[in-house]
Amino acid sequence: MQNSPSRMATSKKEANVTAIVKKMAMVYKNLRTYDLNNPVLQDSFKSLYGALTSFLDVHGLLSLLVRPNEILYESVVVYSSEEKNESLAFNLYKDGIRLLSFREGLPKRELMKFMIALNEARDADPYQADLVTILWEKDLSYITYRAVDIFLEDDESQDLEQLLGRASSDQQLTGAQPVVNPELLLRDLGLSDKSQPRRFAFKRAVKEADIRRIAREIVNEDYVTKLRRCSRICIQILRLDSDDMTFNRVVGFVGKMCDWLVHEKEFLAACNIVSDLRSIRDLPDLSDQRRASIDETIEKLGNSKTMQMIGEYLNTIPEQQAEEVYAYLTLMAPNSVGPLCEILAECEVRKARYLLCRAISVIIKNKPEELRPFLSDGRWYFVRNIVMILGMAGNPEAIPLLYQVVAHPEARVRREVARSLGRIGSPAGTRMLGELVNDPNKMVRMASLTSMRQIADPEARHIIEPIIRGKGFMNLSPDEKREFMRTYGSLGSESLDLLVDIVEGSSQNFDEKTRAMAVYGIAMIPGDETPSILTAISNSYDGPIRYAALEALATIMP
Amino acid sequence: MDFESTTVDQKQSNAEEHALSTADLNLLRQAAQFLGRFRVLVKLAQTHERHNQAVREAAEALYSALCDLLDEVKVARFDVVNDFIYFNGTRIGVGTSEFDLMQYLVEQMTLRNIGSMILDDAVEPEDLLCFAFVFTQLDLGHKDPFDELLRLMALEGIAGIAVSKTVPRDMNLYEQLDHPPKEQAKRSFISALRLIREAVKDGIAQGKVNPRKIKRVIETIVDTIISDERSMLALTAIRNYDEYTYYHSFNVCIYSIALANRLGLPRKILAEIGAAALFHDIGKTDIPQSILNKMGNLTEEEWKSLQQHTIAGVKHLTQLKRLDSATLQSIIVAFCHHLNMDSSGYPQTMGTIKPDAISRIVRIVDIYEALTSARSYRMKPFSKAEALEVIAKRAGTELDATLCAVFAETIGPEHESSSQSDSAPKGSQGP
User: Fold this and answer.
1) What is the pLDDT of residues A286-308, one digit of tens each?
2) Are A171 and B420 in contact (CB < 8 Å)?
3) Is A256 in a helix, a strand, or coil?
4) How high is the ipTM of this complex?
5) Any idea which architecture B180-423 has in CATH?
6) Nearest Cβ partner of A132 from B29, B97, B216?
């Protein structure tokens, strides 16, 4: 066929075909340059479709023969190009297309699918697909093609004879045939031994509705469903299998599927996979090598690309899926903390930030040290979030990290440090709170007092008492004085003496309002005696003290 | 312009295609229903008068089916292309019930040189009735039946129905490139055998089995089955006992595609099913030949080892490191093809994993193929009837009843291998 003589276009019909193929080459070229909505591309496509359908309306069919550098119509060269990369002819030819036909009635959408297929084939991984495969999957009806089978071009006939010669039919079976129990054959196939009589008639069983149901079941089994099913199978194999050699590979494959599920926003399914992997990891008799393999796979799931994708998704996430994302993130390995923190730093949605903080706090719960590098970040709001995460993690090992920012120039960071120390709840944080309770900023001091109450470390009395007795105390606002008194009271019955002294006015020259604040402190002292003490104070002649005692009593009495 | 509706993003495109195929499936079923009623009317027109009540009722029923279609689309266009009927550009899937119908209509339309039939909302029941009679009573011996059809249609004043002539193929070109169906079937057979041998010998993940190659071969098999099921099914009689696994895999692939084709599935899915079926036993490469080729019964230990091939299959396929839909489906089938619907079979999953529909197809076909081929057991194979008996006894419990029934129809009496006889004794009755 390649050697058939060709000539140049002369008739009007041939000139029309030349114009059509030229337009096709133009669309092919434009597809490489422009995106699908570009007007240049759209105009060129319109022009091609118009010319092609006009031709088909008259002639019914357009068949083009493809050669390496040429396209022929009825032995006439209608397209020629030596430039292989951009050549329409070469790109068709190299994938095996030899004949291309367009039929009357060609819909616009089908021509578009065809042109897009040509473009897809240009960028396709040659190992995975070629133009013939891509066109086949498009299931075109008005555009047909003939392709040579590139896989059967070598010594085909010889192979055919060889194969058919070696093969035989069942009837030709000869030789010794030992008796084989058919029941065992059925067992090999995984079938039971059914000895009951048959009650099934094939013909009656074919019901159109059932066939449709199965067809629907198959069509509806989309990619994600397959991923989910496949991952369950692989997890099952990891549980069943005793082969060390392949364990790593299957675990890696499961990890890959999980990553895909995340990209498909199937967080619940992904979550189940990682949970399963973790439960296998925690099996007591699992070898170290297998455990390491699972750890490595989970670490890979925390790659920055995926985390980045999740970060972007978090900005638009529907409420109901937020918890699924959170649950998935909490299963990540500490290596994911870096990318997640980067997302946190840039995230503008408050709910998403909070979700990230919660998730990171779970991930670093046992390794708060992972967050150290972020504490020196220049963005105060980001540092504040990191401090908050350390608090949420509740691990006392985070306390030395918090020292790093206890003197942060931004008061909101220092306040968060105070809060986090309270959340951690360890007496080890008391000393740092001692510094913060003297902070020049009131909100930092107030947060520190709250945290001291949460920790309830009696040692804190040695920090607060000097402040209460100090000269500056009288200059504090009433609410702050009250917080100091309450905190002091909360530290135990040993605080009672000083507080009673203050109320009675026998300790120092406290004014009446400050003395009243001490009543609130007494109310915080744990113990059975507190109500009777407050009842006694409620008989005071001093109005503010009497009022404070009554109010305090109302809050502590049931 | 339609460009806007298309996206280059593969994932989205897959999703769209999926959604499209679900929606299309319903429309195509309606189109098939219309054609079914058209055939009824045509057949009635061959034996009855126009005023016959049954004829008029058939015309009304046809009109009703057309109205259903025209509720969804502006124009209903039926084209005969390459021995198939396309509805508005999409091939109507040939399901069990449509198989004969399509063959009949393609034949009848081709006899009259009708390439397309286009109907719009100007059609009345009377037009359909007249068209059916013109269609039926057309003189097929006429020098140009199509022109005669047009003349008669004009004479009857039929509105809303247009027909166009079959577009002649450019025969010279096609002759050079086309292979006759039987030749095409053989070529597909060889390609598939080569493929499975390469996969087994070289290891599926060693990079020697080209995924593109797999796709191309399977696509050819699918096309051959769609266009010439008989030629392809006939090849399943070819055996080579030295290479049982390859031949068995190939046959399971053929039967599975043929069965799935009867469900009216799109050919892209048929290709996935074909690939999954072709590699369903890939795990057997891990089983010692001494077990696979053992003459006689397997011991308990050997049997346990044999069972491992489903798990080994998954492990082989995970080596591909690809996550495309076909690979995932192959993994699912490799694992589930010995699992029964009632959770019996193997591997034991305690009911946590149920076989999907495609695994259920391969399950039935695998049993049938294993029973009807002699393989290493060195016994005479079960006859087709005996194998179907085994399947029938388990239909509805271990096996999917509907799929069993469709399979029985697929292999049908006409595909009874000449090399096999229903009177052949069972495996236990060797000489």
Assistant:
1) 888 899 999 999 999 998 889 98
2) yes
3) helix
4) 0.71
5) Orthogonal Bundle (1.10)
6) B216
